[in-house]
Amino acid sequence: MRELALGLRLLTGAGRGSRVRFLLMVVGSAVGVSCLAVVLTIPGILAAQDARKAARQPGCVTDPHRHACAASARDSYGVVRTDPYGSEPLTRVFLARGSKPLEPPPGLRDIPAPGELYVSPRLSEVLRRESRLKQLLPGAERGIISPRGLAHPDELYAYIGSRKDQLAVDSESVAFFGYEHADSPTVEPSTLDIVRFTLAGVVLLPLAVFLSVCARLSAAARTRRLAALRLLGLSIKGTQRVNAAETVAAAFLGSVLGLGIYGIANQLISRVGVPGFKWYPSDGALSLSTALVCLVGCPALAWFVGRASARKAAADPLAVRRGAVERAPGKWGLLPLVPGLGIVLGYCVAGATGHAPRDTGLSSILMPLAVLLVGAGLVMLLPVFSRSLARRAARSTHSISLGLAMRRNEVEPGGALRVATGLVVLVFAASLAQGVLIELDQVSKNTLPIQQYNVPLEGVTEEKQRALQDVKGVRAHALVLGSRTNTDVDHVVPSIYAVVATCDHLRGILPRIDRCVDDRPVRLWDPTQVYEEDSKPGASFLFDMRKGNDRRAVSVEVPRETVRFSGYSGWPIFSSGDVLLPPSALPEGFRPDRATLHLYSSSAPETVRAVLDGIGGVDPTTEVGTPGVVVTSLQQITVVKSLLGIGMVLGLIIGVAAYLVAATDRAVERKPQVTALSLLGARPRTLRAVQVAQVVVPLAVGLALAVVLGKLAESSYLVTGGGAVYWDGAGIPLLLACALGAVAVAALGALPLVGRRIDPELIRRD
């Protein structure tokens, strides 16, 4: 306790500079802890949303003999429908109340009676704007679902009271509400593991570097002060505890301040939300475990960093006081890089040779381990590589500025570690985040180059049909008509489908079509499909049309002329035997009774979302079928991308803050050397060039290594993900642009750090 009290006494009595440094350490720790709190509370927010989803799920008592719901006439019945509203899911729960008592679902006071409607606050606002949405939500609005019954504030959710005879045939009895797990979690467990792994790399790794940088502010001055205490008779462990007292006090105060900053930010941001992700403030409230990690973990990290930074002053105080040359950094720190890089290269070679691993259990352990080892090895490599490069550059250069800068980096390679590590780790983590986004796109999107949207034309006017065909992102469309069928007879009536489209539209839909003609009907034929038996050349089929009260039957004869086409693997699009009709074959002004409008676009996730939004803008009540895409999956990917976006923003803040703190602190420590060079006749231009070179060279080297190792780690991650893309070069220009931008900002930021006023006292001041 004596050493701890001495450390605090030195903190308060060491002058204004020491107090300013302590304040910077507190502020830096507060920024880091607030970012850490964000990362630690994200899983809790998702768990709270899933718990409310699970609590409202209708359930029934299962008959063990029939493995189905045991139902009686007194039971309540229900059915759940989830439809796309733009690119968001709209969930409707139809409930028919029975005579048997039933506890209402969370968020409601009672089961809605027939004709009653309870909606979420967001859906209530949408209903006021979109009156036609009432077609999907029959009944009079009687109330709002409370937050207990909603996953998040922006959810589109409704309870609709009905009679039993109004429910669909697939309705089931409802005996209770609530299950242990949600059927459709906000983020799937496997995807959540990926998000946690990515956030750990994007945020936690730079955060550890940032907190270490904050704990080592003014390291040179403090080391000399500790060496003086050691020469006065303080023990080695006592010297380390004196230094740790200051860092622990700063880290603890910063932790308290950081938790306060997070609490305020949670209240503000949760009410605004981030794109694609919103939560209730109570979901983001600090848990006891999160508070303990921040209040205990960060000071503990500061304690170990403080003891480690005082080891040199405690072991050899005379060398510190006399300004002896630092010992060259040991190469033992590179040991993590060897096994980590071995695992990464092994996966890359396996992917390149077509032997991608299938054992995901082993890969789920090896891949995170490899990333952590490569990241740690990259950090340890910086001072060694920087010193070696500085020595060679200093020997070969004829520039005074570059020579001075390289000699300084040679004798003080630890400065490169403190200044460059934050941004280097950020670029390394950004490459990993890009790999995660690539894998998520492969999992979520349609694997085919084209996406289909099926819109039934029942109730769709001709104006709306044209608007749907002109939605931004739609590159082709076709109208698929079904021939007349008679359901009153026992035998099956032959029927076919007719495709109304131009040849240009078919070329935008199909990968191959031969000798297409627009002026007459032809028969579509795909040799890889089983031909439709009813589609026989010469057979006639009737297609019912209507124009107001006027009805007409159009007869279509199956032509003998064929057009060969090819669909996509696993998805033929059209059937072999369908008849291709030119748009002029339909009577003007008449609408088919049985028809579906097929829209086609690129399968890129952003295009799919844009088209769904466009369809919702034309008519929100339109029923849209999206083969290969589930709207809940689109929302899940949006949430994941939002979380990764939050992580990247936090990582950027931490990386930039670490660089600014370390670069400024190093410039302040360099003032005595800068003053000495000024008194020896060095011009300000030369000193600025030296300062820029000292910062830019190790940073540029570190960023280059981060880009290379990051792309290798990204490729190995994609190999273990089981997707089709292993090598992705689309993100390399962006990473290089970010790296060059960081170097440019670092160069500009180093220019003002050489002051104009020369103070000779800096040479003698400890």
Overview features:
766 residues, alpha+beta, six-stranded mixed sheet, 21 helices, 53% helix
**Percentage beta strand:** 5-15%
Mean pLDDT, all residues:
79
| Shape annotation | elongated
Q: In total, how many beta strands?
A: 21
Helix content: 40-55%
Biggest β-sheet: strands ordered side by side in the sheet: 11-21-12-13-19-15-18-14
| Count, helices | 21
Could you explain the architecture of this structure?
53% of the residues lie in helices and 14% in strands. It is α+β, with helices and mostly antiparallel strands and 766 residues long. The strands form 5 sheets. An 8-stranded mixed β-sheet has the order 11-21-12-13-19-15-18-14. Strands 7-6-8-5-4-9 form a 6-stranded mixed β-sheet. A 3-stranded antiparallel β-sheet has the order 17-16-20, with no helix packed on it. Helix 3 (121-129) links the parallel strand 6 (116-119) and strand 7. The mean pLDDT is 79.
TL;DR?
The chain is α+β, with helices and mostly antiparallel strands and 766 residues long.
Task: Describe the SSE topology.
Elements: H1 2-13, H2 16-55, E1 58-59, E2 62-63, E3 68-69, E4 76-85, E5 88-96, E6 116-119, H3 121-129, E7 140-144, E8 156-161, E9 172-174, E10 176-177, H4 189-215, H5 219-231, H6 236-272, H7 288-309, H8 311-315, H9 317-321, H10 337-352, H11 360-396, H12 400-411, H13 414-444, E11 450-456, H14 462-469, E12 474-482, E13 497-500, H15 503-509, E14 512-513, E15 522-525, E16 540-547, E17 550-557, E18 562-566, E19 579-581, E20 591-592, E21 595-602, H16 605-618, H17 631-669, H18 671-679, H19 684-720, H20 732-750, H21 761-764
Parallel strand pairs: 5-8, 6-7, 13-19, 15-18
Antiparallel strand pairs: 1-10, 2-3, 4-5, 4-9, 6-8, 11-21, 12-13, 12-21, 14-18, 15-19, 16-17, 16-20
